[in-house]
Fold each of these.
Amino acid sequence: MAKINGNYLELQGSYLFAEIAKRRTKFMSENPGADIISLGIGDVTRPLTPAVVSSLHAGVDEMSNEKTFRGYGPEQGYDFLIETIIEHDYKARGISLEKNEVFVSDGSKCDVGNIQEIFSQDSIVAVMDPVYPVYVDSNVMAGRAGHFNPETKRYDGIVYIPTHAENQFIPSLPTQKVDLIYLCYPNNPTGMTLSKEELKKWVDYARDNKCVILYDSAYEAYIQEEDVPHSIYEVEGAKEVAIEFRSFSKTAGFTGVRCAYTVVPRELKAYDESGNAVALNDLWNRRQTTKFNGVSYITQVGAAAVYTEEGRQQIKQLVDYYMTNAKMIRDGLASLGLEVFGGVNAPYIWLKTPNGLSSWEFFDKLLTEANIVGTPGVGFGRNGEGYFRLTAFGSRENTQRALERINKLSL
Amino acid sequence: MAKINGNYLELQGSYLFAEIAKRRTKFMSENPGADIISLGIGDVTRPLTPAVVSSLHAGVDEMSNEKTFRGYGPEQGYDFLIETIIEHDYKARGISLEKNEVFVSDGSKCDVGNIQEIFSQDSIVAVMDPVYPVYVDSNVMAGRAGHFNPETKRYDGIVYIPTHAENQFIPSLPTQKVDLIYLCYPNNPTGMTLSKEELKKWVDYARDNKCVILYDSAYEAYIQEEDVPHSIYEVEGAKEVAIEFRSFSKTAGFTGVRCAYTVVPRELKAYDESGNAVALNDLWNRRQTTKFNGVSYITQVGAAAVYTEEGRQQIKQLVDYYMTNAKMIRDGLASLGLEVFGGVNAPYIWLKTPNGLSSWEFFDKLLTEANIVGTPGVGFGRNGEGYFRLTAFGSRENTQRALERINKLSL
């Protein structure tokens, strides 16, 4: 008799976005003509840049010709893309990587979701709260999260580390034993970053305790300030303890194109039952070669164009466009007296709801009084209660119109 | 302290292709000018068809325009592709499916590798021998295979069902309890098929024993004979017990483009610890929405072009090209007195090695005397010993040249 993976039954419904959709639909049915502006979802809206578009066309043409057609490519990605990633994203910042340390994939969500497979089933997982839900859910599915406690609204097997205005969104080191630590900087949902000094504390902690840090850096391209680390490998010794995830999704508008990469340094080890060190690079390589078949050649040609001189200028314009939105939102909300976080090195603005409103109360207020949809902070975890996320990914026009509407609210 | 998933240590080295590469390299270094023809790897060589190419270009153009740009798509795939899949691949054969029963993905290898996640860790897995290695390895990684026995060359936790010339490559039903059954038809590596009557035995067995059949049908497009089932759902009751995997890789030359789909019928159930039936469709949907982010929009537009009238004609020509190769190889080898299987409804020819040679002895003979690289059958499992796989995916010219060389061998 076929039995299911019972851990799936511990998953909580994807309450957040279902509830948002429900409230939005209800409002629309009661207000049929309403012109709703969404600053909720973390998805780009600007088209692909010309350098990428012309390379994608060239890739398609190569695949149409017998002489240049390519079938299965390397599961790890083509050298031409890996070499340019290393050159521009790492060597340019003084970090050296070998080609076999970079694994091209079809998305950071996939890699971040799959990476836990190479670790033991009894690993203790630490996440920040608020948190990107995939870190938690992928471990629930694998049986590492224990039971969900409806009172605490937390899994009893996960270690949650709070970040909020009171600690300046700087997480404290764990006070109990953990094995795997998910860090996301620039952060989704808060839009905040960690300084190199703060990041060093985590690297040192991981080295002292033989932990592995899973460092999600999908929003790296949005870093504007000089002193914010772009890679965890800027911290000495990080290659011994950290896997880094990067994506073309937000960097180059690839959310609908699908390309990302993951760095697993050769120095990085974890331990078998007998305490022998095993290279995680070998395990991830085995995982990817067994259960993955590489990214579309056409897509990889398009991704490589991001690094040409023309490509980099266009990407910078793209990021500038969204970051101008972010500044408008930040400044606009701050001028109304709201407490605003993020939005300086990330496309997310994390605001404290006014007058002690709950996240959902503020959601309803924005929806009904300004016809704006955002994301209630509590949807990302208990410590998100009383916060609200707006994104800078809308069009300039919609961002402006949304701010004008918020300006007219009584907050 | 971070510990590894110890099950990975039970994986055997990917001995087969490493050993092939090693012997080939050695031969090349000793015979620098040798003109080697590869009929080994199961990868296509013909370019994408014009209908697909023009749709891919159109998809790229849509992504370059603000008005038609698409960001994140549905993790399950776009309706336009799912609807056309259902219409042409199923409804045309009298099988009705709902849109939420089809999940578009970036490859059958991914889906076949990931599907085991939704089943309990103590599931007993049955595979045919010889077998496509991903079925076994993905279960080894999940801890379902037990230990590898170097003497039997098998995992002690896997149920192996032999297929060979003596049983006409028709597998017998399991004689011990199993929960999950991997079937692959048209078969890789043997190129053989099952009749509807034989397939019905498996469906009935699965219904009687509440098993789930994982039906890999990646080579469906190569079926030429009238009475060979194209889908397991042609068998009554199969929707209650079977998941079906299909791919554009071999159908339309998409090995380097990456698109496939998996059908998980709503009727299909497995059981929780208390014996309650749970819809596997819900679990797979949750798996994909949590750990996958959909296939490139551009790729999905290209895949949909496969089903246009023009597209279908071009795909038929593509399949005919390879199947003409297959017939040439079959007939050529048979005329030399070799026992030949497959190659009628599949692009693989599975031959019995002459004069009792082992798979590797025949490999060496073909390599050194005819400069042809194929795949030793024993690499797919113990019952592959004494067999050898050739593929029809080469160019016409190379296939012809290879046959001329084999013709001159003393066999």
Amino acid sequence: MNTEKQLPDETNEEHRKRMVRLNEIKDRQLAEATQEKGLIIVHTGAGKGKSTAAFGMAIRSLGQGMRVAIVQFIKGAIPTGEAAFVEKIAAAGMPIEMHTMGEGFTWKTQDRERDIATAMTGWAKAVELMRNPAIDMVILDELNIATKYDYISPSIVVQELLAKRPMLHVVLTGRNASDEVIEIADLVSEMKVIKHPYGHGIQPQRGVEF
Amino acid sequence: MNTEKQLPDETNEEHRKRMVRLNEIKDRQLAEATQEKGLIIVHTGAGKGKSTAAFGMAIRSLGQGMRVAIVQFIKGAIPTGEAAFVEKIAAAGMPIEMHTMGEGFTWKTQDRERDIATAMTGWAKAVELMRNPAIDMVILDELNIATKYDYISPSIVVQELLAKRPMLHVVLTGRNASDEVIEIADLVSEMKVIKHPYGHGIQPQRGVEF
């Protein structure tokens, strides 16, 4: 992808000509890509940005006039900026709904059976939303954590995803995405930590982390 | 991070007790992290989600009552869902502004000198926003591409970031982040491609890609 940079021995005019050729190639690639398809998208890995990028996709979809639904499987005990924001724009009439089912991380609830029941309630809501033909994008936030801890079986998730409407986009976030879900996904990104500031006395920052 | 999973030979009660201990450790770690700080955040790598996660942070910050400004250095020629959305919520009175300076990728403009001029105009706007004490978060979308192509020198960027107000958050996105910027950043995430659907006849999807 660095081919577009001007080369040391290249004049401006040579660079311009090379860019014309590169543009033709890119245009041809794009012309060949004509298939519209609802995607199964997975954001996983230990780095920051998995849920955040899913929320970014939600607003992008809203900007395109699409209808979005979000289920949060783990978070929920603590008020977040994204929840406050979604509430505000939904109240203003934008086609977005958010269902916060989680009661926090498992070391907070300290009750595995309740965690499983909470996760299954969230999953029932997720299924309802995915089967609602009015919805264009469903975000299943931290679902990967619920499958990792065996609160929800990955095979149930895969079965529902395989049966989804062709144009529905489904975004699954959380570290440790199951191999079964990755196998059937169209788009998988891993967020990797290169550097992080916490644990050196710096607290999670408002607006950045929550 | 898998320590919270119930172990095969662990009863529900043993698991509960272990979660109580884990909770104590996490609470202590959080209590020790008391420093509030505006962060320098970098989203880089070849995977999806760099700009999208920055937009997600923008809405999280808005939900927290913070004021946000975005400069787009490369994108701009093509209308996007995020631009439409930001326009809509800004018109509704939310404290967000977006400045789209880019004229598209360099293989579209085919004019290196114009690209440099465009990038420098964007940088002047970025500096103005970072120095505005009313703004809590500035997103410099695709700035890493502008430094990679030598449209803007990384040392100018580093100098301005080092001089920023302590509580200002700055988010820089784009592949090939410069080593100089990574060196001074607080939080760096790399988005990696694990699987992507394009180039197999599937076109970039509305709401997902733009």
Amino acid sequence: MVELDDPGDPRLADYRDLRDVELRKSLEAEHGLFLAEGEKVVRRAIEGGHEARSFLMAPRWLDGLADVLELSSAPCYVLSEALIEQVTGFHVHRGALASLRRRPLPPVDDVLAGARSVLVLEDLVDHTNVGAVFRSGAALGFDAVLLAPRCADPLYRRSIKVGMGAVFSTPWTRVPDWYDALPDLSRRGFTTVALTLGPDSLPIEEAVAGVDRLALVLGSEGHGLSSRWEASADRRAVIPMAAGIDSLNVAAASAVACYAAARR
Amino acid sequence: MVELDDPGDPRLADYRDLRDVELRKSLEAEHGLFLAEGEKVVRRAIEGGHEARSFLMAPRWLDGLADVLELSSAPCYVLSEALIEQVTGFHVHRGALASLRRRPLPPVDDVLAGARSVLVLEDLVDHTNVGAVFRSGAALGFDAVLLAPRCADPLYRRSIKVGMGAVFSTPWTRVPDWYDALPDLSRRGFTTVALTLGPDSLPIEEAVAGVDRLALVLGSEGHGLSSRWEASADRRAVIPMAAGIDSLNVAAASAVACYAAARR
């Protein structure tokens, strides 16, 4: 427990300017760290086996996490809420912050071992959506998540927060080979079902009927799936929608598709 | 078309400080206005019959909306993007802004006329969620939306944007009487189905099976439904979820419930 009163203290470097997405991306990559925010999420990160570099807390948040802090040998910096706001650049509603070490991503084999229902995300760009998809997948019985090389980072603070820490309980990794990602899953015994508005799509319920090992494939917010992924999936599926309406956003679509898949 | 070069011009008062939620709430209520952002959403607002007070555009956005501007007698203020940012307090990615007149809310009778599937939102606080629910409802075949007196404003800029303008195409209003809102719907021939984690909840698919006129009832992000609404609904329903997982967020839950309801 280290009380600080200087927001410029170099020991607080991990927590600078949390709203500056570009700066955070490079800072976190360079130092191999990620940030968790809020008592519940910090607790889940530590309980999920992630090693803390440090914690940053306002005094009134210490009690709720006392047991978690005890488990860790990392320093806990204590600052007033006003000073925390100066460091991070915004008012941290849920008080507790932790800087944690990134671990090497596990091999695809490990993530898929024993999995029956897998989400595969291509190039989502919005951290909120990535978090929402992890959360819905976990709630609706999906066992694992695979990400294309360029999909937005599920360990970005906002992804973790929106996902309520599901990224810590769901095995996930990135596929090394974008081009052959879906054929590779087919070879492993998964039926790959791509969610798309394309013309040969089946209603989702029909597309997943009778499928044992399922890989449900989602594309980016703007343009959906790449033509390569759309064409190389075993099946294409659509959520039946009212005429003339914009499609569901990817978070809503993934929730519906996971629900339909969970009942296959 | 009025070119301006002073971000302090009083004619731009409708567009000030768009990120200051509290200020916007009181400003918009006082002047009976709301703001639409982005070419597609502005177009839908005008096509939905909303009267513009004014438009605010950067030069490169004029062409895309030329036909819409022609339909309206309201002034269109043209400012550089840098000056628009000074007025609004942030970078307006999609350029076009319009300030529109709020209309009196229609009576519940009008909104429910002919409706078979209605969403009823209690006290959602997050504008993003309100917009997402409108969008999912419209995509999945819901005909109308009713809001409790304290539910967040669907005409707030962010609600409209996330909802892709579904609030302009879906009939909606506020119920005047919070306490008896659900019994009143039952008297009108709707079966009210409340989404809740409560102990006597049926799986959603079972709860909506065979229902003709359906009112699907959703509670707030934090605490869900009030006990009054939970108890006064005809049925309670749950989305079956994996053990030990936090519930779905309200946007995901509403998408799943609308999907299940659409297939009843």
